[in-house]
Amino acid sequence: MDLLYSAFDILLRWDVAIALLAGSVGGVLIGAIPGVGPAVAIAILLPATFSLDPIVGLTVLLGIYGSSMYGGAIPAILINTPGTAVNALTTYDGHPMTARGEPRRALSLAYSASFFGGVFSVICLILFAPVLARIAPMFGSREIFLAALLGLTLVVVAHRGQTLIAGALACLGIFLNTIGMEPVKYTQRYTFDQDFLGSGVNLIVVVLGLFALSQAFVLLTDEDEKIRVSRLRGGMFQGLRELARHPRVASVSASFGVLMGMIPGVGEFTAQFMAYTYAQKTSKRPQDFGRGSSEGLIAAETSNNAVPAAAMVPLLALGIPGEALTAMMLSVFYVHNVVPGPGLFQNQMDFVVALYLALLLLNILVLLFLLGATGVLVQVVRIPNRFLGVCILTLSFVGVYSLRNSATDCMLAAGFGVFGFILKRLSLPAVPIILGMVLGGIMEVKLRAAMARVKTPLDFIDRPVAFILFLLIITVLLVHVLRVRKDSQSLKEAEWQIKTASTSFGALMWRRRNSFLKAHGKKVRARHSRLLRRLTDLF
Amino acid sequence: MTTERERRFVGPRRGQRVFALAILGMAVGLLFLLPDQTTWAKNTKLFAQPRFWPAVALSGMAVFAALHVYRLPWKRVTRHDVQELRRWLSAVEFAAWFMGYVVLVPIAGYLPVTLVFVPALAWRMGYRRRSMILICFAFATIVVIFFKAVLAVRIPGALLYETLPAALRSFAILYL
């Protein structure tokens, strides 16, 4: 109880209240504009939050992160275009509802489901915080190294069908982090005798380039779309009543969101996929999924909104971000000399609980705002794409230039912007680069510290947590190898248009040999050669 | 005809091979520079060597990129790849606009340059209506006031402001 009081004490400030309001309203607006997204907004605002208190800065960023998915549901439902990438699944059932004249029902259900997901995850994590506080001190250098390695492995293998290039991009991120003066031996690494590379490549410069500038370039080189928004009819509170009729789907989907959010590199997409599949399999009307099913919409929206609070767990407890947005938030901690990790849970638990309470308040604020202002808010989807590009380019300048007032930083950011543009054109992920940069730095420091106390390689995993993490890494890699083998087998089957016991070359030769040796095989070959002779005689 | 392997590939065909080869070339090139660009410290363990992590990162990058090139369903560069390269270059124009903005702000000031930059770029993008240009002016003014005056982000005063009278100069340096 004391913990809750001291957490409220941190939050009861006018600047935190403004941050909550700005984060929630700003996040909804950003989410509602297709083509902007929370990553762009957080990247731009990041340097501006450095001058604020950690709790104020983090509340704004968390607000944008948490509420953008609420806003993203608006264009997903009304114009079949997801506002943020994670709202893609919302279009499956949300837009068909609009098409049959129920846009308000779809919106209200999406808001209610999002609210339930957000609140469920925050309550889970507040209850879970004491357990985390007990587990976090068990993480020493080697455990943090292994957890970072696990995070990086998960991020790479999560890009199904693009694992190899995702691995290469993660390694590029690790490499970028090594550029500059090395802090232990004070030697230069890949600076090419250039002064501006001496201090290294700044994470925020890369983030702004890859997320904000690249998005501006995409919008500027694209065409404007003509958008027709459906008129809204009906009440906005019916969604809350409808949600109450599906408590099982809502709570299971939110649980998937919490669990997947806590695992680095997994995030919203896996949570949504699992929740949606569960909802469809257990539904009495599975045929409605994809055609405007309320259960489908609940599963998609509840699970994605349960993720932001859960994604803060690896960041706060271990100092390891699981995805790009939390990686950006890590820099806010570093700027204020607040080191997230086991120490934070032991010494500043009230700060952690205050962050969770801020998220809780934020969900309430966003729901109230949306229930009252959706009619006006839908108009933001009409903003032309290329004009948005102009706005993002203008705002990106503040983000990069205010960092160190360096034109070189801006040049690097522009370079990464073009690189990010190429990645977007090729549908390749930029997230592994960011996580490679952040986790690569953590891994370098922790491995050096851990190896100083290790005599044999097995000593590295002789502690329970380290051993479990090591087993998890091996399991993830094994599962991935099995999945790749299965994919390659199904590809061969599809290419050959046959389904045999095995598609490997050895097995094929074995069957051929048996065919030659058996009497039936001889008969078949004789028949084939007879038919072939008849055919050749025709010519 | 599109093969099953091509159909199952995640992402578009155009530009994939060029990009993969460029990443592989970059990784191999940087790996060759490893002895020149990093140092081997004496009496230091392997894991604490300044060279260790760049070597791990670049080796990983080269291996992954080489495997990616090998596994790509397309084995040669086509005219579609060349067209895609041209499309990549189109982004450079806007990178140049951005750099122009960066260069001009310390000379002419944040507010004046933003007031010119936003409508000029909007004009370039084909927005010619008066209402749109007015929106651009309003957007530019709001951005400057919000970031420089309200949030007090660090954007230094311009050379042009030095020519202003003393009272106006300090106001301009602080808020415009």
| Total strands of chain B | 0
Strand order of the largest sheet of chain A: 1-2
**Structural class of the secondary elements of chain B?**
mainly alpha
Q: Specify the overall morphology of chain B.
A: flat
Characterize the biggest β-sheet of chain B: none
Most extensive chain contact?
A-B, 68 and 75 residues
Beta-strand proportion of chain B: under 5%
Number of domains of chain B: 2
**Fraction of residues in β-strands of chain A:** under 5%
> How many helices of chain A in DSSP terms?
24
Number of domains of chain A: 3
Total count of strands of chain A: 2
Please give the radius of gyration of chain B in angstroms.
25 Å
Distance between the termini of chain B: 60 Å
Structural features, described:
The complex is a heterodimer of chains A (about 550) and B (about 180). The N and C termini of chain A lie far apart (about 95 Å). Chain A has 24 helices and 2 strands. Chain A is mostly helical and about 550 residues long. In chain A, a hairpin with a 6-residue loop joins strand 1 (about 180) and strand 2. Chain A is about 75% helix and about 0% strand. Chain A has a two-stranded antiparallel ribbon. In chain A, helix 1 (about 1-10) packs across helix 18 and helix 4 (about 55-80) packs antiparallel against helix 16 (about 325-335). The longest helix of chain A has about 35 residues, at about 105-135. Chain A has 3 domains: about 1-445, no CATH class; about 455-505; about 510-539. The mean pLDDT of chain A is about 85. Chain B is mainly α and about 180 residues long. Chain B has 8 helices and no strands. The mean pLDDT of chain B is about 90. The longest helix of chain B is centred in the middle third of the chain and has 30 residues, at about 80-110. Chain B has 2 domains: about 5-75; about 90-175, no CATH class. In chain B, about 70% of the residues lie in helices and about 0% in strands. At the A-B interface, helix 8, strand 2, helix 10, helix 19 and helix 20 of A face helix 2, helix 4, helix 5, helix 6 and helix 7 of B.
